[in-house]
Amino acid sequence: MQTDILVIGGGASGLMAARSAAAQARADGSPLQVTLLEKMPRPARKLMISGKGRCNFTNAKAWNDFSTHIEEGSRFVKNAFYGFDSAAAIAFFEREGMKTVVERGDRAFPASHHASDVVDTLVRSCLSEGVKIVTDCTVAEVSLDAKGRFLARCADGSEYRAQKLILATGGLSYPGTGSTGDGYRFAAAFGHTLTPTFPSLTALVPEGYKDGGGKALKGHIPRETPLSALGGKLCGVQLKNIGARLFIGGNCVEEHFGDVDFTDGGLEGPLGFAMSRKCVKALLNGNKACVELDLKSGVPADEFAARVTGLWKAQGGRLRAVLGALLPRELVPAFIAAHGNSVKGPGTLAAALRGWRFPIAGFVGYERAVVTAGGVPTAEVSPKTMESRLQKGLFLCGELLDIDCTTGGYNIQTAFSTGALAGRSAASSPAL
Ligand SMILES: Cc1cc2nc3c(=O)[nH]c(=O)nc-3n(C[C@H](O)[C@H](O)[C@H](O)COP(=O)(O)OP(=O)(O)OC[C@H]3O[C@@H](n4cnc5c(N)ncnc54)[C@H](O)[C@@H]3O)c2cc1C
């Protein structure tokens, strides 16, 4: 089959790229056929589960603030962001009939809080611009044909030829949504390299949290690994407004304040995620990592010590009773299991509450990581157009590139911004 612009991948970046390409071509008076191939039965499975099903589709911060939430690739993203920023994303969805709300931390959602509204709006916009969406179509390989056109061979035997190719296949996280890293291979077919990938925004697994059946667990610890006795006591505990410090090789490299959740994966929630990128990278590099939780962050040290001493005396040194007055009830058994033997008096108890140390054994992998860090190096792609510097007519966008952000709507927005630019550029660049 023949088309003008072929987009591989129907996630946030691919849908935005396809509709932007078609809209640009229409505006230029040269309608081009844009075809999008998506391997799953429906597009954008990942958007459907994003933001816990509510899809935090952008963050309304202006660039100076927004860019501080881009962990890797912020200089590269800047031009794409200015071409389609968060205000433009909100305006786009409103114009297309989807009401939006901006909540705490400038995070924008569909007003319905249904991620399906974001997906439906994107798909409807693509279709109304004339984009042909082919689902259940897994691209197996890409190359150039004898006439220098892009050729995509699909698993079902079909073939697509195009003047321009946009790769929007995402990263490796949540492979059940279709993102299995195929794009790295497609990009490599045109000479692109790969900055090593690793899971980010993922659960950190403390030592002793999972039951390795006698084997020491290390590195990637799959989420389904059973909990140990300690893990069983902690799993389900949610801690609000606490302090957390990340130590790498004995040095404190990050300090945060906020909420931590202990789940069947390990230590996550906003603080766990915030520390995960640096922590996973350190573990993969063979360094030791430790998270220290301050359960009474914000209370002056001497005031807290006096309170613990008073409680200790009042309760006659009965640890469980003292802890009952200081901690959420569900945390007490785990705290006693971890510190029962080392608490000798109010001094050691206060110190343990201000600095509960969790040496980190490993992390949950791509199976449940929110994003993939690493990817196709941005140095190999033009930030002005998203066109490959190695292959004319080839464009790359979204999580496939070596770009990743913190939580808060930044990842989807960068997928939208880079996708919109790739689409506009593919439509307006000269035919090969
Ligand atoms: C659980 C979860 C929650 C998240 N919540 C948020 C959030 O609230 N806010 C936020 O900003 N970010 C969130 N993210 C991250 C965000 O969803 C992604 O960064 C973003 O969707 C990436 O978009 P993308 O288009 O680059 O890739 P994807 O969305 O991964 O899309 C890639 C598409 O390409 C298709 N594809 C892959 N290979 C092929 C092939 N060979 N042939 C055909 N098609 C192929 C895939 O099926 C997929 O549909 C979340 C991620 C997860 C996993």
Write down the overall mean pLDDT: 97
Structure class: alpha+beta
Number of domains: 2
Bound molecules: flavin-adenine dinucleotide
Fold-level CATH name of the largest domain:
FAD/NAD(P)-binding domain
Shape: elongated
The number of helical runs is: 14
Number of β-strand runs: 21
Could you tell me the radius of gyration in angstroms?
25 Å
Can you tell me about this structure?
The chain starts with a strand and ends with a helix. Strands 1, 2, 7, 8, 9, 10 and 20 form a seven-stranded mixed beta sheet that branches. It folds into two domains: 248 residues, 3-Layer(bba) Sandwich (FAD/NAD(P)-binding domain); 160 residues, no CATH class. The relative contact order is 0.20. It has 432 residues and is α+β, with helices and mostly antiparallel strands. The structure holds flavin-adenine dinucleotide.
